[in-house]
Amino acid sequence: MKLAMLVLVTIGAMVIPAMAEAQMVIVMRHAERADDGASPGTSMTASPDPELSEAGKARAQKLAAMLGDAGVTAIYTSEYRRTKDTAAPLAARTGVSAEVVLARDAAGLVARIKSHTSGAVVVVGHSNTVPAIIKALGGATVTMADDEYDSLYFVAANGTTTRVRFNP
Asked: How far apart are CA 108 and CA 115, in angstroms?
């Protein structure tokens, strides 16, 4: 009986720290674009790589305030300005440099994410990449509207996916 108790205590001592250090991936779409999400070529002012709007800049600041003490160990963005600008305040607050991975390289991004075994990994993507990234991480099937900027998806190592909505 004492041996069984000792085994349970030993297993618990090994599992609890491992659970505490388990990786959490936070996936989101970039903040609001200055061109209101216009598709390139639809107007004279549409840009294929727009900056953030004032609302988008405020959302990026709120994101930094929310996740600044979350144990962020890595930040990934695409090559587009709006993802980099969304991540910039969080990177500045945490001292973690954002790494650029091409938007079309979902497999490479997921491999990089999975190389982190602990801490929080933040991914700033696009409405057409976020659902695929979450799914590739073993998370739930999600859909994202073209005008959706307020969702953070927390994907645990076991695939549990939690959506949190936030406003600046």
From this structure: 11
For residue 47 the two structure tokens come to 């840009």
Here the tokens at position 14 are 């090994």
Is 51 exposed, middle or buried, given 0-12, 13-18 or 19+ CB atoms closer than 10 A?
Answer: middle
Q: What residues are paired with 74 via a beta bridge?
A: 121
Domains of the chain: 22-165 (3.40.50.1240)
Q: Is 94 exposed, middle or buried (0-12, 13-18, 19+ CB in 10 A)?
A: buried
Number of H helices, E strands in the chain: 5, 6
Residues 42-61 have a mean pLDDT of: 83
Q: For position 35, what pLDDT does the model report?
A: 84
Tell me, what's the pLDDT at 48?
83
